[in-house]
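Researcher: I'm preparing a figure for a lab meeting and need a structural model of a single chain. I don't have an experimental structure, so a prediction will have to do for now. The sequence is pasted below. Please return the structure as tokens so I can convert it later.
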Amino acid sequence: MKAFSFRLDSVLSDRVRREELQAQALARVRHQAGEARRHREELETLLENERSAQSQVGGARPAGHLRNTLAVMEQIRQRIEALATREMEIDRDLRAQVVAYRSAFQDREALSRLRNRQQENWTAEGCRREQADLDEAARTLFHRARSGGGET
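Model: Understood. Here is the structure written out token by token.
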């Protein structure tokens, strides 16, 4: 019996590669989202620590020092806002990437199921043919034995 051949094997291979690429892209976007979130949280912690330090320090300080501290805190706040905006963009990209990955997965899965079903049918058909050949051989032997009077 010849080997099973799936006519869409090249398409299935392309779908597998597409799914792998989408999975890699999804992993990259998830990593970016985690990094952006971590960086924003670090800056928020830094800003909160700076505010706490300013409120705990008593007494008079030079105006230049206060202005410099406020300017630094404002820059940190602006950077946090920029990172929050970037995080929203990455989250939007992440949602789109999840949709693309699911689509690639479903395409590949549909072809895989089709291939498996065709292979099962091919195997079952091979078994039926083999059984039919065995049945035919048995009938032939039976008829020879009957008609030949037991000659071998």
